[in-house]
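Weekly sync, protein design subgroup
Attendees: M.S., D.O., the rotation student, P.L. (late)

Item 1: inverse folding check
M.S. brought a backbone from last month's batch and wanted to see whether the design step gives back something sensible before we order anything. D.O. pointed out we never logged the input encoding, so this time it goes straight into the notes. Structure tokens as presented (89 positions):
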């Protein structure tokens, strides 16, 4: 299987997903041996390997009456500001 690199230099999503999962399982195995925590764990790697995430609150609204206190644009702005203030970029 040949690697495919996109215009931005990213490895194709299938290969990137396999690499992320393999690294996470390797880290979990090492953690079990030496009892030192490692990140990411396999579940985190699977989530991080997705090309995109879409979150819709319809089920939460129907199940238990959830409604967002702020809109998406404000949430993104606040997150960006927090990232800047806490050196997360």
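Designed sequence read out in the meeting:
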């Amino acid at each position: 299987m040949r690697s495919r690199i996109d215009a931005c230099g990213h490895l194709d999503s299938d290969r990137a997903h396999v690499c992320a999962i393999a690294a996470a399982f390797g880290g979990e195995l090492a953690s079990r041996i030496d009892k030192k925590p490692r990140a990411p764990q396999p579940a985190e790697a699977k989530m991080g390997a997705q090309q995109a995430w879409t979150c819709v609150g319809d089920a939460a609204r129907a199940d238990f009456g959830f409604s967002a206190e702020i809109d998406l644009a404000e949430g993104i702005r606040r997150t960006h500001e927090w990232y800047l203030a806490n050196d997360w970029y």
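Discussion: DSSP finds four helices and no strands in the chain. Residues 1-51 form one domain.
Action: P.L. to compare against the previous round before Friday.
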